[in-house]
């Protein structure tokens, strides 16, 4: 574009602009504009044909008026006319007007498109560029439809000028981003890659931008760009600071192009070709070396540009995560920046180091900077830098430095900015749990958290401490003692009261021996907080009180008096009132035995992913937890603290409260599970015939059975096994073992394998399914040398399953000799669609001790899939037919296994559907179809799986004619990847 | 990836905006107000990068003029930071003294309108990280 020179401008325009600027008031301005508009309108309508210059001038004035914020309702035609001028300046103003005031007037669009077409075909590079800029600036779908096919041709044509190629590449990029489906892929893609070799750096820069975007969708098509990008990068990196002339920025050769090339390489894994890889490593080393050289210029621009390349280089090194030497060097380089006087560099260094910390090769090197980072947390004046420092501390934390980091973060929390307190609280809670060697430290840390930042301690955090204390009996006494002490503070946070109330209610007896914390003292301490608390906390405390009656009979009278007080019995809050009434009655009518049963200590919680971690992930978006997934770095940590090991009793008595403290369904925090259960029970007891003052054993059983989880798997069992002698009573069948779901998942996509194994017994499965029928062979192998007695495996249909699935079993021998294997045949018929698998209950006596456990039988709905082949057209037609929202189930989830197309294919075939090639326009995606065969009905089913290798995510979509089936299949399949 | 490019004066008035992702016109005003607010409130000791919603703002101040670029989180902050400077240098070369671009009439007299609109897009030699249409 030519530089502005004085005489070149339009005088009339300059006068008009200075008039406007001299206007004293808004009114004067509007008046002047209206006058000008009237003038222009009359010129446009006049009989005399206007010359190009006047048209340009008036269109320009209109544009200026529009930019001042006034509506323009005429002049479009004149602007379009300017497009066909042969003068650059006139054409340019025409295009500018069109780009700024796009009008969807169909008549005009046709004319505009025509003008653009002419310019694109004109072979005049300036005109072609103007046209390309206009297409890109408008960037609408209509523009895409009209020109998307032409632009690739211009881009790779041998005779296009550099400036045209550059504009074409960027224009195509813009259109591709706006509507990817309009840009046809074809043989031009291969030639686009070769633009990386172009001698014009502008073309290369534009091409890199384009390729980086295109290759995300079709990495394989652009694979050849790796070696070209590497050689281009290597030429830039090794060039002298003046070689690239215009593209040298303060003695740094082509900094932005280098950054873009490095970013492009991050779309791919390390180059496979050893020569290419060697050359690339050399480049990366050169960049790292240059960072140590004295700067060629004192100007900050020089170092900024150099550092931009350096940071992108480090990103690439981290992306490859395979060159220990480079990773450590990168870490040392960033370490220098940590103390740099430029805040920007400190910020970026902390941010990069955070990702370095998750690499096994550089984790140790990152850890050496711990003191600097802690210092940054304390002294940085910028909150965003402090936040980065906190993130980095979290990422570099492992067993060796956990105590130091947690205590520093706790100290920081006292002064931390409000905006980030909750996140810090979550992080401290996670680190404390993950790296706790002794749990007393964990309890101390969490109580400190509550003390320092109680308002920011979310339910997840204090639920979690209760779960852990409940599951680990070695820490219960300590926890009781600590909360007791914490509660003695004159002002303590309500969350502390909640934790204290719950823990003392469960384990207060462990510290009751000390006269300083005798039962009455504990009670009066808690009760002194009662009136300060919210309803939810008061409800929790009432439950604690009733638990006290059981733990410490001597407090009964005091507590009953409290419950009986008018403020409780006639409390305006219905929950508090009900609790008070029920607890009071329970404490007076129930015998000590009954009380002891109802108010028994909570059973351990089943293990699952820490809910706090889930919350942090939610807060930070997907991928944020990755720094924590450091199993490979510190494998032992997972074994010890990945969770509390399930105690044997978890196996036999899964707690009904699992979901109350776990977060799948957030409970009212006020309901400590057992006591809440007790509250409901009372209603039953009083309604029932057993509501006599003295409760016999029958109602006691009622209590117990009511305590069973109302989970869908709960065995309201009906036995398919016709052998009456072997039938255990249905109430004897335990719920499935905790791993049952995981074991079941292994068999969703395969039919044969080992279903279960422990020290005594191995169960193998072989099965085949055809239409709605199946046959399954179960092989029970006795791994010991001792005979199993009374061996009886039975199949149970929980819930409605009996009407959905028929399973015929044959009895097996009641004795299994040591080392022997028995086989059981199951004939299965699918009657209609079902969601829960049947259960397999196995019981036997081993050396006199009864053994029993329940598994989920690997029969899932997808076993009755019949693959269906169909053409793309049919598929899409059916896909559209199933377009009701409830027919579709979709899940977006992170890959748990490496994303390998072949493995995915095998899994999908194993899942039972047919895999359809050439249906999805994107070859990376998988599309399948099948029919689920049941006796009563057939369910057509279409599926689509879209892997995103970049994000390590999948999106799975299922459409079937039955809503529950879509959802169920989606869930089953989603767990396989 | 660059999401938008803003030039805003100290009073918080937008002098030039260019969006590379679709944003509704009425949402733009709100976004621009919030963006400039978060830049104005920062001191020299603070870094030039702001995490804002799900993206990052990178800004530089030239006298009374702020240039703010919104990018997604895979963008190289330092490259954009220096790119802003490069952009300003180019404008300086072209129009002499960019910092004085303040009131709209001036923009239009100092830069004729077509240049004002075209400059962020096409007045760079391809060296820039954001070549015309990013």
TrEMBL record, chain A:
Q: Which GO terms describe its cellular component?
A: AP-2 adaptor complex; endolysosome membrane; filopodium tip; glutamatergic synapse; postsynaptic endocytic zone; presynapse
Biased composition range(s): Low complexity: 646-665
The ranges of region (Disordered) come to 615-675
Q: Give the Pfam families listed for this entry.
A: Adaptin_N, Alpha_adaptin_C, Alpha_adaptinC2
- What UniProt keywords are attached to this protein's entry? Cell membrane, Coated pit, Endocytosis, Membrane, Protein transport, Transport
MF-aspect GO terms: clathrin adaptor activity; low-density lipoprotein particle receptor binding; protein kinase binding
Membrane topology of the entry: Peripheral membrane protein
Example GO biological process term? Answer: intracellular protein transport
Q: Where in the cell is it found?
A: Cell membrane; Membrane, Coated pit
Main subcellular location: membrane
Where a 1,2-diacyl-sn-glycero-3-phospho-(1D-myo-inositol-3,4,5-trisphosphate) binds, per the record, is at 11-12, 43, 53, 57-61
Per UniProt, residues of the Clathrin adaptor alpha/beta/gamma-adaptin appendage Ig-like subdomain domain are 745-858
User: Quaternary structure per UniProt?
Assistant: Adaptor protein complex 2 (AP-2) is a heterotetramer composed of two large adaptins (alpha-type subunit AP2A1 or AP2A2 and beta-type subunit AP2B1), a medium adaptin (mu-type subunit AP2M1) and a small adaptin (sigma-type subunit AP2S1).
**Family in the record:** Belongs to the adaptor complexes large subunit family.
The role this protein plays is: Component of the adaptor protein complex 2 (AP-2). Adaptor protein complexes function in protein transport via transport vesicles in different membrane traffic pathways. Adaptor protein complexes are vesicle coat components and appear to be involved in cargo selection and vesicle formation. AP-2 is involved in clathrin-dependent endocytosis in which cargo proteins are incorporated into vesicles surrounded by clathrin (clathrin-coated vesicles, CCVs) which are destined for fusion with the early endosome.
Q: Please state what the protein is called.
A: AP-2 complex subunit alpha
Q: Which organism is it from?
A: Rhinopithecus bieti
What is this organism's lineage?
Eukaryota, Metazoa, Chordata, Craniata, Vertebrata
TrEMBL record, chain B:
Q: Which UniProt keywords apply?
A: Membrane, Protein transport, Transport
Domain of life according to the entry: Eukaryota
Q: Does the keyword Transmembrane helix apply?
A: no
Q: How does it sit in the membrane?
A: Peripheral membrane protein
Q: Which Pfam families match?
A: Clat_adaptor_s
Q: Which residues form the AP complex mu/sigma subunit domain?
A: 1-102
Main role? Answer: Component of the adaptor protein complex 4 (AP-4). Adaptor protein complexes are vesicle coat components involved both in vesicle formation and cargo selection. They control the vesicular transport of proteins in different trafficking pathways. AP-4 forms a non clathrin-associated coat on vesicles departing the trans-Golgi network (TGN) and may be involved in the targeting of proteins from the trans-Golgi network (TGN) to the endosomal-lysosomal system.
Q: Which family does it belong to?
A: Belongs to the adaptor complexes small subunit family.
The record's subunit annotation is: Adaptor protein complex 4 (AP-4) is a heterotetramer composed of two large adaptins (epsilon-type subunit AP4E1 and beta-type subunit AP4B1), a medium adaptin (mu-type subunit AP4M1) and a small adaptin (sigma-type AP4S1).
PANTHER family assigned: ADAPTOR COMPLEXES SMALL SUBUNIT FAMILY (PTHR11753)
**What name has this protein been given in UniProt?**
AP-4 complex subunit sigma-1
Give the organism's phylogenetic lineage.
Eukaryota, Metazoa, Chordata, Craniata, Vertebrata
């Amino acid at each position: 574009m030519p530089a502005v020179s004085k005489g070149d401008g339009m005088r009339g325009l300059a006068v008009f602009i200075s008039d406007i600027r001299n206007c004293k008031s808004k009114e004067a301005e509007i008046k002047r504009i209206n006058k000008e508009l009237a003038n222009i309108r009359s010129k446009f309508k006049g009989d005399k044909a206007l010359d190009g210059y006047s048209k340009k001038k008036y269109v320009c004035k209109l544009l200026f008026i529009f930019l001042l914020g006034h509506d323009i309702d005429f002049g479009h035609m004149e602007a379009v006319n300017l497009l066909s001028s042969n003068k650059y300046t006139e054409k340019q103003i025409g295009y500018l007007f069109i780009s700024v005031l796009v009008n969807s007037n169909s008549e005009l669009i046709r004319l505009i498109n025509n003008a653009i077409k002419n310019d694109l075909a004109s072979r005049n590079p300036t005109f072609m560029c103007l046209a390309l800029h206009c297409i890109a600036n408008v960037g609408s779908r209509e523009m895409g439809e009209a020109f998307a096919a032409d632009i690739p041709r211009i881009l790779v044509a041998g005779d296009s000028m550099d400036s045209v190629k550059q504009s074409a590449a960027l224009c195509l990029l813009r259109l591709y981003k706006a509507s990817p489906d309009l840009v046809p892929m074809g043989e031009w893609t291969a030639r686009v890659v070769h633009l990386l070799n172009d001698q014009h750096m502008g073309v290369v820069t534009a091409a890199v931008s384009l390729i980086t975007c295109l290759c995300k969708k079709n990495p394989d098509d652009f694979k050849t760009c790796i070696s070209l990008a590497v050689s281009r990068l290597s030429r830039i990196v090794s060039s002298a600071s003046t070689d690239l002339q215009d593209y040298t920025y303060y003695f740094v050769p082509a900094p932005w192009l280098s950054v873009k090339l490095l970013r492009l390489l991050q779309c791919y894994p390390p180059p496979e070709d050893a020569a290419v890889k060697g050359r690339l490593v050399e480049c990366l080393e050169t960049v790292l070396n240059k960072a140590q050289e004295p700067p060629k210029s004192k100007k900050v621009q020089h170092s900024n540009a150099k550092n931009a390349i350096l940071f992108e280089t480090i990103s690439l090194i981290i992306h490859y995560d395979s060159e220990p030497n480079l990773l450590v060097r990168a870490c040392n380089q960033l370490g220098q920046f940590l103390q740099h006087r430029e805040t920007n560099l400190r910020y970026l260094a902390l941010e990069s180091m955070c990702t370095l910390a998750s690499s096994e090769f550089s984790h140790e090197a990152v850890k050496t900077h711990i003191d600097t980072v802690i210092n940054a947390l304390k002294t940085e004046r910028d909150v965003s830098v402090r936040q980065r420092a906190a993130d980095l501390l979290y990422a570099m934390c492992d067993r060796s430095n956990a105590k130091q980091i947690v205590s520093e973060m706790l100290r920081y929390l006292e002064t931390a900015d409000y905006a980030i307190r909750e996140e810090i609280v979550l992080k401290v809670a996670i680190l404390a749990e993950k790296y706790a060697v002794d749990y007393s430290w964990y309890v101390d840390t969490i109580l400190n958290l509550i003390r320092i930042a109680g308002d920011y301690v979310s339910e997840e955090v204090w639920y979690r401490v209760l779960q852990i204390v409940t599951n680990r009996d070695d820490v219960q006494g300590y926890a009781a003692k600590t909360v007791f002490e914490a509660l003695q503070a004159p002002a303590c946070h309500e969350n502390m009261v909640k934790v204290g109330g719950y823990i003392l209610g469960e384990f207060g007896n462990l510290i009751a021996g000390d006269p300083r914390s005798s039962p009455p003292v504990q009670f009066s301490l808690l009760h002194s907080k009662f009136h300060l608390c919210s309803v939810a906390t008061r409800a929790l405390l009432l439950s604690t009180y009733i638990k006290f009656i059981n733990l410490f009979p001597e407090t009964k009278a005091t507590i009953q008096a409290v419950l009986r007080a008018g403020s409780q019995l006639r409390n305006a809050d219905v929950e508090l009132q009900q609790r008070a009434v029920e607890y009071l009655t329970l404490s007076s009518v129930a015998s000590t035995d009954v009380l002891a049963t109802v108010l028994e200590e909570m059973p351990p919680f089943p293990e699952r992913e820490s809910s706090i971690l889930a919350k942090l992930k939610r807060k930070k978006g997907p991928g944020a937890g990755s720094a924590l997934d450091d199993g490979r770095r510190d494998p032992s940590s997972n074994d010890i603290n990945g969770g509390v090991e399930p105690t044997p009793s978890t196996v036999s008595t899964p707690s009904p409260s699992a979901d109350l403290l776990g977060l799948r369904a957030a409970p009212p925090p006020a309901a400590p599970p057992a006591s809440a259960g007790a509250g409901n029970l009372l209603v039953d007891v009083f309604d029932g015939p057993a509501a006599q003052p003295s409760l016999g054993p029958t109602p006691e059983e009622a209590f117990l059975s009511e305590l069973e989880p109302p989970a869908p798997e709960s065995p309201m069992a009906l036995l398919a096994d016709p052998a009456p002698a072997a039938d255990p009573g249905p109430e004897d069948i335990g719920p499935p073992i905790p791993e049952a779901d995981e074991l079941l998942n292994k068999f969703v996509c395969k039919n044969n394998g080992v279903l279960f194994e422990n020290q005594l017994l191995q169960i193998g499965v072989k099965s085949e399914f055809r239409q709605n029928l199946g046959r399954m062979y179960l092989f029970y192998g006795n791994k010991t040398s001792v005979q199993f007695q009374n061996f009886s495996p039975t199949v149970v249909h929980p819930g409605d399953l009996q009407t959905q699935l028929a399973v015929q079993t044959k009895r097996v021998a009641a004795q299994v000799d040591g080392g022997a294997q028995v086989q059981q045949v199951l004939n299965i018929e699918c009657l209609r669609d079902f969601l829960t698998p049947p259960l397999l209950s196995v019981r036997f006596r081993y050396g006199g001790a009864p053994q029993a456990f329940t598994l989920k039988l690997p029969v899932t709905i997808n076993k009755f899939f019949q693959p269906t082949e169909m053409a793309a057209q049919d598929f899409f037609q059916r896909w559209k037919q199933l377009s009701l929202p409830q027919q579709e189930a979709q899940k977006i989830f992170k890959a748990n296994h490496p994303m390998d197309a072949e493995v995915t294919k095998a899994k999908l075939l194993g899942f039972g559907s047919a895999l359809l090639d050439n249906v999805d326009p994107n070859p990376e995606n998988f599309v399948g179809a099948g029919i689920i065969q049941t006796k009563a009905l057939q369910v057509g089913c279409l599926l689509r799986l879209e892997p995103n290798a970049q994000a390590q995510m999948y999106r799975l979509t299922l459409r079937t004619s039955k809503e529950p089936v879509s959802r169920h299949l989606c869930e089953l399949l989603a767990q396989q990847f | 990836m660059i999401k938008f490019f803003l030039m805003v004066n100290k009073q918080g008035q937008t002098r030039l905006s260019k969006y590379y992702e679709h944003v509704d016109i009425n949402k733009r005003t709100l976004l621009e107000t919030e963006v400039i607010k978060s830049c104005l409130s920062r001191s020299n000791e603070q870094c030039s990068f702001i995490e804002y919603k799900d993206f990052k703002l990178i800004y530089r101040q030239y006298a009374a003029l702020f240039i703010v670029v919104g990018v997604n989180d895979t963008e190289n902050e330092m490259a954009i930071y220096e790119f802003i400077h490069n952009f300003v240098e180019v404008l300086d070369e072209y129009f002499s003294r960019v910092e004085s671009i303040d009131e709209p009439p001036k923009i239009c007299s100092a830069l004729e309108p077509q240049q004002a609109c075209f400059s962020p897009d096409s007045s760079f030699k391809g060296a820039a990280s954001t070549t015309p249409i990013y």
